[in-house]
Amino acid sequence: MRAATLRRLIVLALIVMWELLPRSGLVAELFLPPLSKTLVAGWTDAAEYGHALAVTLYEVAIAMIIACGGGILLGAIIGSLRTPRILLMPMVSSLYAVPLVILYPVFTVWLGIGSESKIAFAAIYGLLPTMLSTAAGIQTIDPQLIVAARSMGATPSQRLLRVIIPAAIPTVLSGLRVGGALVIVGVVVSEMLISSAGIGFLISRYRTVLDSPHVFAGVLLVLAITIAFSAGVRWIERKAAIWQTGTRAGQAAEDDLGSRGLQPATT
């Protein structure tokens, strides 16, 4: 049986169990309402959930841009330069080990309980692993590759595009996956702690009144966001793999021509 088919069967089995276990009385509906009741609750208050989803997506998008873009940029700088790497890497690694959720009250004091504090908290939450992975990926590049590219007259931009980025892409994407997931976690958790809008706020509000169907309707929306993000990262990984293959093939062809004393045709 193919892995994809097996995964679909597992998902289908979980959906069936979600519906049948509460209805059979094996699991109390307070802890796990039937899937049908959860969907009905979400559909009944679709306008409320739609507004909350828009708020959460806005916060996730802004925080994702800051965390992933800033993390890759800072990681590239730290990983490429010896002095910043020696000074900052131990500090960043130690900070990453701290559960940053304990600092969220500080963000609310500085920025209030609106979207600004959620974005700032989630951005920092996701920036650290992205930065560390990017820096680590650049450090794992074989120095001989860069030396060889420099000796062949490659410009800094050519070294960056043809050597450094292709060699570091797998690690960078791994950090992007972790950092992006933590951004989603950071936004939802911060909304659950102190907020007046967003999916996390709805989950927390309905939890206080023991309205399990509405709680799980919010959980389903969070799950949908994470699935969409994961699918997006997989798409980027496929495109990056194709680009890496093409870049390496082109470089190999140029090297072969160079070894024969020929120059590639240009237009």
Structure report:
It is a single chain. The protein is an all-alpha fold. The chain has one domain (about 50-250): MetI-like (MetI-like fold), CATH 1.10.3720.10. About 80% of the residues lie in helices and about 0% in strands. It has ten helices and no strands. The protein has helices at about 5-25, 35-45, 45-80, 80-95, 105-110, 115-140, 145-150, 155-195, 200-210, 210-260. Helix 8 runs antiparallel to helix 10 (about 210-260). The longest helix has about 50 residues, at about 210-260. The chain is globular, with a radius of gyration of 24 Å. This is ABC transporter permease. Belongs to the binding-protein-dependent transport system permease family. It is found in: Cell membrane.
By CATH's scheme, which homologous superfamily applies? MetI-like
Number of strands: 0
CATH topology name = MetI-like fold
Residues in helices, as a percent range: over 70%
SS summary, helix count: 10
Please write the CATH class name.
Answer: Mainly Alpha
Number of structural units classed as domains: 1
Radius of gyration: 24 Å
In terms of DSSP E residues, the strand content is under 5%
The global form is globular
Secondary-structure element sequence? HHHHHHHHHH
Span between termini = 50 Å
Largest sheet: none
> Helix- and strand-based class?
mainly alpha
CATH architecture: Orthogonal Bundle
List the defining traits of the structure above.
267 residues; mainly alpha; MetI-like fold; 10 helices; globular; membrane; MetI-like; MetI-like_sf; transport; transmembrane helix
